[in-house]
Every structure is written in structure tokens, then in C-alpha cells.
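Subject: design request, 82 residues
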């Protein structure tokens, strides 16, 4: 799993990585390898940022112009707060 590095502080990044590891281990009983990388260095994080931004724009501002570019790729969509 690759998580986005938002902090430059090594201690905060390590705490975040440990938190993710503990949650996955406790809830799903699996061990995973977690890397924390910057979005500029990891293209998949840029793609995830774009997708989450398009969904945010749709629900928060009623702007579905970018959402329409990806909506045929979304398998299921359920609003958390209808």
C-alpha cells in the first residue's frame, strides 16, 4: 500500500505508517507493506487525488464536469451522508 506523504516530519510519517499497519492487522488479520511517498514521485497518488477531487466537486459544488470523465469507471457509489 502506498500512502501519500503530507508531512516532512519523519516522526509523524512513521506514526501514520504504524497506525495504518495496526488498523489493517487488527481489522483484517493481514500484514501489508506500507510505503509513504510524495504524490509528485508516485503517479498513482496523483491519479487518486484527481479521482477524489472530482467526486468532491460533484457533491460539494454540483460540478460534475470532471466526474463525467470517470463515471463509467465507478463500479458502485453510495453517499455517506445522503
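Subject: RE: design request

Done. Sequence follows.
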Amino acid at each position: 500500500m502506498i500512502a501519500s506523504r503530507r508531512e516532512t516530519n519523519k516522526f509523524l510519517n512513521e506514526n501514520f505508517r504504524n497506525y495504518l499497519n495496526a488498523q489493517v492487522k487488527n481489522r483484517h488479520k493481514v500484514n501489508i507493506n506500507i510505503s509513504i511517498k510524495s504524490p509528485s514521485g508516485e503517479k498513482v497518488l496523483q491519479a487518486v487525488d484527481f479521482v477524489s477531487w472530482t467526486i468532491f466537486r460533484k457533491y460539494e459544488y454540483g460540478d460534475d464536469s470532471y466526474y463525467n470523465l470517470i463515471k463509467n469507471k465507478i463500479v458502485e457509489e453510495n453517499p455517506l451522508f445522503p
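The two ends are 30 Å apart (CA to CA).
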